[in-house]
Amino acid sequence: MTKTLLSSVALAAIFASLVPKIAIGADFGSPDSVDNTLKTKPNPKLNWRESLEQNQNLTFGLDYQSLGLRASDTVTGGENNAAAGVFRFYGSWNLVGLDSGNVGGLVWKVEHRHKYTDLSPKEFSFIGNVTPSLPDGVGYVGMIGPAYSDQGSRLTNLYWKQKLNQGRTSLMLGYLDTTDYVDTYALASPWTGFTNLAFSTGGGAIGLPDDGVLGLAVGHMLTDNFYLIGGVADANGDSSDPFSSFFDDSKLFTTLEFGWTASQEQIYTDNVHVTAWNIDGGTRHNLSTITLPDGSTTYSDQNGRGINFSASYFATAQLMPFIRGGFSSGDVALYDTSISAGIGYFGLGNATSNLGFAVNWSEVNEAFGRGLDNQITSELYYNWAVNDYIQVTPDLQYIKNPAFSDKDSTWIIGLRLRVAI
Question: Does residue 5 lie within any of the structural domains?
Fold first, then answer.
């Protein structure tokens, strides 16, 4: 998730005069990777922090984020609102290769995720509907604000990142967030981009593990335009208990991505890629269960696998249209098929604000039941940088045919707040 995997995604090089604060020398990885977040955070560094970075090659950031949601229609008797907050402390410390260009160092991110209401935003879509201890929610098979949960304290990143071949190769080894290197693009971050998972990593058609697990990922530029990214991670990992499963009950999440980019500096904006993935069966991410001879139940041992694609390109200096989708088999991904199309507008209102609009069509995984309606989802948001420290993001979503609901459709309004230090 950082100045690591795919060491090169510089939004500053892309948005130049538009968004000069967005990313200076960003890397292989998603917009939400630690190093890219540090480079794109909206606030200026304090003098002592500048000194720390220049003299010790150590940089860090703090932020607090909140998300509130309210639905016009829910499952009859269900909760119509959800809200949660997330505190994050993240940083990187470059320790070797400072003169050679093949820099290596430590990256970390710790978080505390907590809900304010009976349902967290992560539970609001459908988890409440299938969990007896929780109230019902919207009945939409999907996730809105999946990072806004009630998990409590968690370790999201603790890994070594290493550049090789003058930055054309990058690897990271340790405790990773797979969404930092799998199927990334410029608007995938749940903190600054779209809120609905349909428009984020995998589009709901990748069976993702927890977003903080032991793993290894490597990215390499084959030519000036073509690249490969591969990764393997602990599919059973639990970020609230980081080292509990890898050596005792190892199941793997593996990915391989082949892509084209206009240049390494534009790797998650002007980009076309195809991602193949597989997740071993027998984890808590399986959607169905099996009955054992003693009458107890456990998770299905069915593997999940699939193919995803993504294409995005700056048609003008500010407008980035995109089309993304995926096809999956097995009982792990939320969707058997997911197709999204939309557009991002960067520099709207001021240099560091952006707007996004997209529409998704999804075919719900048959593990949830046969005959469920296909869902149509749309989202419009405006990420407004109020000043150097505060971002406010109003958000509007419309969902047609929520699969678990007795209502035909629902509107969901949201408000996201970020305070960065």
Answer: no
Query: What residues does 307 pair with on adjacent strands?
Result: 276, 327
**Neighbour tally for 209: CB within 10 Å:** 26
Into how many domains does the chain fold?
Answer: 1
**If DSSP codes are grouped into helix, strand and coil, which group holds residue 282?**
coil
At 269, which CATH number?
2.40.160.10
CB 415 within 8 A of CB 393: yes
Mean pLDDT of the chain: 89
Identify whether 135 is part of a domain.
Answer: yes
Instruction: For 41-88, write each residue's pLDDT tens digit.
Output: 555 566 777 788 888 899 999 999 999 999 999 999 999 999 999 999
Structure tokens at 80: 């119509």
Q: Is 406 inside a domain boundary? A: yes
Residue 188 CA to residue 172 CA, distance in Å, equals 20
Q: Which of 27, 31, 3, 6 is nearest to 220 (CA)?
A: 6
Least confident of 53-57, 79-83, 153-157, 360-364: 53-57
Asked whether residue 6 is domain-assigned, the answer is no
Write down the pTM of the prediction.
0.87
Q: Where in the sequence is the domain holding 195, given as residue range(s)?
A: 11-420
- Written as six digits, the tokens of 256 are 């391989």
